[in-house]
Amino acid sequence: MRGDAVNPLGVSVLALLSEGPMHPYEMYQLLLERKEDRIVKIRPGSLYHAVARLHGQELIAEVGTDRGGNRPERTTYEITPAGRRVLVDRLAEILRSPVREYPQFTLGLSEMHNLPASEAIALLRARTEDLAREIEELSGFQRLARERTVSEIYWAGIDYTYHMLAAEMKWLTSYIDRVDSGELEWPHAISAQHTTLTDRH
């Protein structure tokens, strides 16, 4: 099976099961505990769908079921030899080959000249406030991991995300300062047009 047939959440599931057998709810809780939701979009429904798909592809196999108290019956899964091969191949592909992911924020930056400067800068400032909170949260996770002597190799993804957000914050702060100082001139036609349209309403 081609590795690209497994989506990012599927890769996360295979990676978890390479640590040992688990049931989907345990996977979900562990992914959240490790802040993997910063890296992969995780929802309970999508996780269960990913598990079902991997099972159908024979990349994981059922190893038993259990029922604790009044909870629904839970099925435990383990990774198969085919699953291990796909995991290794998919990771090699992801690490080796850059992929154009077309983030929406880049589109927003490319087209924000359609807004008046005051509005665009206010929006970017609000974004930096959100970034600051996220950076602080990730920094706290890094400190906790170090205190627990968890090898950095296990949270490289979070560390990378932290540094990417910090770089974005640095760039945005500099960009906002350049617009505020007049170093970077905003298209006057846009501001004039916006004012005219506003006056009409």
Automatic annotation (TrEMBL):
Q: Which InterPro entries match?
A: Tscrpt_reg_PadR_N, WH-like_DNA-bd_sf, WH_DNA-bd_sf
Where in this chain does the record put each Transcription regulator PadR N-terminal domain? 13-87
Q: Which domain of life is it from?
A: Bacteria
Write down what this protein is called.
PadR family transcriptional regulator
